[in-house]
Task: structure prediction
Amino acid sequence: YPIQCVEIPNMAPDARAVLTSSHLKMISALSVNRGGITDEDLKAFSQSPFVQNLWWVDLSDNQISQEGVTALITSPYLRKLGYVWLEGN
Result:
C-alpha cells in the first residue's frame, strides 16, 4: 500500500528541506507538530508545487504567526487542503 500520511516531529534543522521535498507529492496528510517550523519555512512550503495533494496538515506547536497562516491561505498549490491544525502557535 502506498504511504498516505507522514509524521515528522522535531525537524527544526532540516525543516525547509523537508517541507519543500519532492517526496511530498506522494502523500495526502502530513504532521509536523513540534517541528520548529517558522513563518519563513511555511512560506517556502506554501510555494512548493509538491504539496498539491495534501488535504490534511498538522502544524501544531510550532513558531507560526498570522504571516505563516496567510501564506497557507494564499498558496496556489494547497487548493485541496481541507484540514489544518495550528494549536500552540
User: Anything to note?
Assistant: The chain has a mean pLDDT of 92. The first strand starts at residue 5 and ends at 7. Helices lie at 15-19, 39-46, 66-73.
